[in-house]
Amino acid sequence: MASPEPTDFLDVRSLFTEEERQVQDTVARFVDEKAIPVFPDAFDRHHFPKELIPEIAGMGLLGCNLSGYDCAGLNHVSYGLVCQELERADSGLRSFVSVQGSLCMFPIHTYGTEEQKQRWLPGMAAGEIIGCFGLTEPDGGSDPGAMKTRAVQDGGDWILNGAKMWITNGTIADVAVVWADTEDGVQGFLVEKGMAGYTSRDILKKYSLRASITSELFLDNVRVPDANRLPGVRGLAGPLSCLTQARYGISWGVIGAAIACFEEVREFTATRILFGRPLAATQTIQLRLADMCRRITTARLLSLQLGRLKDQGVMHHSQVSMAKWNNVRMALDVARDARDMLGAGGISIEFHSIRHMLNLESVITYEGTETVHQLVIGRELTGKAAF
Amino acid sequence: MKILVGLKHVPDTETKVKVADDGVSLVEAGIKFVMSPYDEYAVEEALKLKEAAGEGEVLLVCAGPESATATLRQGLAMGADRAVLIQDPRFDRADGLVRASALASVATQESPDLVLLGKQGVGTDESQTVPMLGELLDLPHVSAVGTLEIVDGRFTAHREIEGAVEVMEGSLPAILGCEKGLNEPRYASLKGIMQAKKKTIDVRSAADAGIEDGALGEGKMVVWEKLDLPAPRSGARILEGEIDDQVVELVRCLREEEKVI
Ligand SMILES: Cc1cc2nc3c(=O)[nH]c(=O)nc-3n(C[C@H](O)[C@H](O)[C@H](O)COP(=O)(O)OP(=O)(O)OC[C@H]3O[C@@H](n4cnc5c(N)ncnc54)[C@H](O)[C@@H]3O)c2cc1C
Ligand SMILES: Cc1cc2nc3c(=O)[nH]c(=O)nc-3n(C[C@H](O)[C@H](O)[C@H](O)COP(=O)(O)OP(=O)(O)OC[C@H]3O[C@@H](n4cnc5c(N)ncnc54)[C@H](O)[C@@H]3O)c2cc1C
Prior knowledge:
The complex is a heterodimer.
Chain A: H1 18-35, H2 39-44, H3 53-58, H4 76-89, H5 91-111, H6 114-125, E1 131-134, E2 150-154, E3 157-168, E4 175-182, E5 185-192, E6 198-202, E7 214-225, H7 237-271, E8 273-274, E9 277-278, H8 283-311, H9 317-341, H10 353-363, H11 370-382
Chain B: E1 2-7, E2 9-11, E3 33-35, H1 37-53, E4 57-64, H2 69-78, E5 82-87, H3 96-110, E6 114-118, H4 129-137, E7 141-145, E8 147-151, E9 154-161, E10 164-171, E11 175-178, H5 190-196, E12 201-205, H6 213-216, H7 243-257
Parallel strand pairs in B: 1-4, 1-6, 4-5, 5-12, 6-11, 7-11
Antiparallel strand pairs in B: 2-3, 8-9, 9-10
Helix pairs in contact in B: 2-5, 3-4
The complex binds flavin-adenine dinucleotide (2 copies).
Protein name (chain B): Electron transfer flavoprotein subunit beta
GO molecular function, one term (chain B): electron transfer activity
InterPro entries (chain B): ETF_a/b_N, ETF_b, ETF_beta_N, Rossmann-like_a/b/a_fold
């Protein structure tokens, strides 16, 4: 028997179809050649490398699990693998693709009119139109039902007022999917760059996801035509269904971040000689590596099964909560431990683990904090909401 | 314009290979196989020529094992139109002439306007297929092409030779071996991968391609006797101390220990 592959100990790859493997290999190569070389510096400079967008779009990574409108029409397992490969480079890169595809193109595709789909989706798939998703507000993201942003009908238009906070891609977005409360419950509006009263500003000096743009949006009596309202959904089910899509991708993505850290620390401990032997020859280092391997492997299996359920159309949102919770926690723990095993060098930009570790501090918060996902499962188990 | 592109399915140069117990083959488990990198330039060039012409067909051909369909699918996902696999696991350790003959059988049947190959297949790096195919088909052939221009049924190919560039002109059909730098191969797109599923890979046996069984078996012209991995490099030594002392020590080592100066 051949020895197991350290990063895929139970050969989960053998469970993928030839097409899924081809998708993964194609994206992996792009990530190795074009993305990994630029992200350490991009993170250091607090800069999102926009110059990658044309190639990302050219490969069809934006909205790749949607069909029609120039989208690739992949299955959800393939989309998961795309996320996993992208996040090997940086969570900021995967965030960009998650937001564009799962949070912006998905609601237009699912809840939009035919006209809206024709108008926005091909350009978004081509990376020519950038989207952002405005749900979170300054006063508490975990409780979106308490949102203060309001939309009031005025003839054939809507007047929007409010503010959104922590919005990925906010200042570079051509269109914002803004969720606002109305007389009939929460509804989604496509707010376009340049509409009077709509402004945005970057949140500067983050210590996490520095290679991703995070912004505030301000809506001051913004007049939005009814043609820009997503008619297909009312209530929190709208934004929550988008989050389910994005969280699904995140649960795969973070496996990539964990693998990057694991690979880095495996190589380091194999070659670092202390007390006359490689670090890798000590029991504590082996225990730590074995634990990383175990957790990466179980996360892989969990995501794959989740993906198969999603491809069969039977995935429940609380199952996504389990994967997001388990896998992000796994990746964050792996990154922190890798950082520690790298010693002092581990705090420098020369190594990737600290960057992944810092990024994952955002990933564990956004798209539902760890606690919120635990409480979602708790509610599922007990029938009682304890938020 | 119909362009035939020959592909080889080879171990990724990044993977660490192990020799199997038989001493002549590689342990395949854990090795990633890929399209030979020079062949990627051939696929890219073919696609560019087709796109520039606004019409044409790019046909991929591989002589290799069943698993080589993955390499053909990659070429189809990049945008090629169809593929032929002459399937036999023994092609990998056959001689260049057998592989060239297999490609020649498809070329004879398809009559392409141009045949593009990588200048060599990484792994065994024999660089034989281009000239052999040219001679078998009695067509002009140039290998290690770094720049290519095609106008009115004629090609102009530049190839770098020691200290100079050779410019070769000739008529089509021709066999050209592509060199690194000819172009920048595209990544397959996800849509391309989806479309590739619907494209056909025509699988033929070696016999269908006119290869006699003996040529792949007992009667091989080239027999692999033994594979050895390069000997591991012995440890390096880092000199310490003042720079002047280091220089003296370096010269002493080179003269007295290594005896190279
Ligand atoms: C880099 C980044 C990018 C983001 N991008 C986007 C985006 O594009 N669009 C968007 O809309 N939002 C975005 N967000 C916002 C993100 O979704 C929110 O930060 C998240 O939902 C948490 O909300 P909050 O920050 O207001 O924290 P809070 O909701 O205030 O939570 C604070 C703490 O309290 C805990 N908590 C909350 N409720 C309970 C409870 N009932 N019981 C026990 N504990 C509780 C939480 O787990 C957390 O630990 C982004 C955030 C970050 C960091
Ligand atoms: C910001 C900063 C400032 C510093 N300032 C100073 C300073 O002013 N002066 C100074 O002298 N030093 C300084 N240091 C160096 C610091 O003391 C060392 O980084 C520390 O001793 C760890 O050594 P190392 O980085 O070489 O890691 P290593 O010793 O290589 O350790 C790497 C990992 O291996 C583990 N490990 C090591 N040995 C074993 C073993 N036998 N079994 C199991 N696991 C093991 C460690 O716990 C760690 O997780 C500084 C470091 C930092 C980050």
